[in-house]
């Protein structure tokens, strides 16, 4: 093990903002795995392996045995929600996991109750919370969240925060986001450009703890937050878990481009019936999601480099709230491609997925990898952790740098970062040495 990375001793506290479908599926899942009742399927950190050295060396340890990640046995959860239900009630409400399965870990789930949240209905129109903090100003609310973090720090060795709360209305950066000083002034002045997610993120970064964003909200992709993240050595990464349709898109689009097949249109539509679907039924929240989903094709296909293939793509994304399906989303894609001499072809994808089953392992990996980044001297003061792009619809990159959306480039980047911080040779796939 690289001697520079601090070991993962003691408890890792995970503070979850928004304890709904994804959060309860994460928390219940971690407990079920700890008790030997289920496997952490879908989690790269728990099930993935990493090749070290040459293909002929036969060395491919599990990632969790290679990098000094926190053990699941050391993970402790707390969090905030605008509803006071404990994790057992919230998981039943979310209807993702079977009641029989939930009953096997009922006392544990009942022991976790959300703290009152920072919430303002202006930013999530379809929700009306009762379990909310009261404060004189946004600055006061940020102080209250910092107090919650400080109290949790007393019980744990290290802490990370992850947003699995609802999608907020579409916001764009304003001058108050230009630097920390301007942002802090705006907190005092209750500036409407500061959404609740920014208040949590600010509190986390101020306390020096990493922050991950599972939703597409404008939260840490702001100059003031990048500055704060670097200043306090609290890593940040991208936004909006890459789970269903966008996951598929970032697998298929690189394949078309690899073969130099053209694309004329990509129509994506979904039906979704959980609370997330209800929130996204509001046009202002949907716009935030839409922006996050639309970006990927442009970056992967690079129409400016390949105008004959990708100049005029018609790309559309719809999400329809349809209660009967609950968390079991169905996503359809109609893809119009063209090949040799311009002859058209079509591909249809019908993904009958389970939203939170796909998202929970990503949330787990993110908290474990962010904790590792915090303990790694090479990563902790970089601010943005581009190597975690793998998990996001909207990866975060240094200003001016275009993001990598191709899932397999993202995976290579993630694994090479682990090799790098652990002092192992990077794998380039050149492979000439086998033929010397
Ligand atoms: N499941 C997926 O595949 C997936 C993929 C990408 C992104 N996401 C995003 O993850 C988020 C969570 O999804 P979900 O299915 O768990 O939704 P959910 O509605 O079940 O849970 C969100 C929870 O956040 C709470 N909340 C809202 N605002 C809050 C605030 N200010 N403070 C504290 N709590 C707050 C809500 O009360 C709710 O319990 C959504 O933004 C969703 O768009 C989910």
TrEMBL record:
One of its GO terms (biological process) is phospholipid biosynthetic process. GO terms for molecular function: inositol-3-phosphate synthase activity. InterPro entries: Myo-inos-1-P_Synthase, Myo-inos-1-P_Synthase_GAPDH, NAD(P)-bd_dom_sf. Keywords: Membrane, Transmembrane, Transmembrane helix. The keyword Transmembrane applies. Residues 244-356 form the Myo-inositol-1-phosphate synthase GAPDH-like domain. SUPFAM superfamilies: Glyceraldehyde-3-phosphate dehydrogenase-like, C-terminal domain, NAD(P)-binding Rossmann-fold domains. It holds the Pfam family Inos-1-P_synth. The chain crosses the membrane at residues 12-30. Belongs to the myo-inositol 1-phosphate synthase family. This is Putative myo-inositol-1-phosphate synthase. The lineage of its organism: Bacteria, Pseudomonadati, Acidobacteriota, Terriglobia, Terriglobales.
């Amino acid at each position: 093990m690289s001697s520079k990375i601090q070991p993962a001793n003691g408890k890792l506290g995970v503070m979850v903002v928004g304890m709904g479908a994804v959060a309860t599926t994460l928390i219940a899942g971690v407990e079920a795995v700890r008790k030997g009742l289920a496997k952490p399927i879908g989690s790269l950190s728990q099930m993935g392996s990493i090749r070290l050295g040459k293909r002929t060396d036969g060395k491919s340890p599990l990632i969790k045995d290679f990098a000094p990640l926190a053990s699941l046995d050391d993970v402790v959860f707390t969090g905030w929600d605008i509803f006071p239900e404990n994790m057992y009630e919230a998981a039943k409400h979310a209807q993702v996991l079977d009641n029989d399965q939930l009953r096997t870990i009922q006392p544990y789930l009942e022991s976790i109750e959300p703290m009152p949240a920072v919430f303002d209905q202006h930013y999530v129109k379809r929700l009306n919370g009762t379990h909310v903090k009261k404060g004189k100003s946004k600055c006061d609310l940020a102080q209250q969240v910092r107090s919650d973090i400080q109290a949790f720090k007393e019980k744990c060795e290290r802490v990370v925060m992850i947003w699995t709360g609802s999608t907020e209305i579409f916001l764009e950066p304003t001058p108050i986001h230009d630097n920390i000083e301007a942002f802090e002034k705006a907190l005092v002045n209750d500036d409407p450009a500061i959404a609740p997610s920014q208040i949590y993120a600010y509190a986390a970064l101020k306390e020096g703890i990493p922050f991950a964003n599972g939703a597409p909200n404008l939260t840490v992709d702001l100059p003031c937050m990048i500055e704060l993240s670097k200043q306090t050595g609290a890593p940040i990464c991208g936004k909006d878990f890459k789970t269903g349709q966008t996951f598929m898109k970032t697998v298929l689009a690189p394949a078309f481009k690899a073969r130099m097949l053209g694309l004329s249109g990509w129509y994506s539509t979904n039906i979704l019936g959980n609370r997330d679907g209800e929130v996204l039924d509001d046009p202002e929240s949907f716009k935030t999601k839409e922006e996050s989903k639309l970006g990927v094709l442009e970056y992967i296909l690079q129409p400016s480099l390949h105008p004959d293939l990708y100049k005029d793509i018609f790309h559309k994304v719809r999400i329809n709230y349809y209660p009967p399906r609950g968390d079991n989303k169905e996503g359809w894609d109609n893809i119009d491609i063209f090949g040799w001499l311009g002859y058209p072809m079509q591909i249809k994808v019908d993904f009958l997925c389970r939203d939170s089953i796909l998202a929970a392992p990503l949330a787990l990996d993110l908290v474990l990898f962010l904790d590792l980044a915090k303990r790694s001297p090479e990563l902790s003061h970089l601010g943005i952790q581009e190597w975690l792009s793998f998990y996001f619809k909207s990866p975060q990159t240094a200003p001016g740098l275009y993001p990598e959306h191709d899932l397999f480039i993202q995976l290579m980047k993630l694994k090479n970062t682990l090799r790098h911080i652990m002092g192992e040779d990077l794998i380039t796939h050149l492979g000439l040495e086998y033929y010397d």
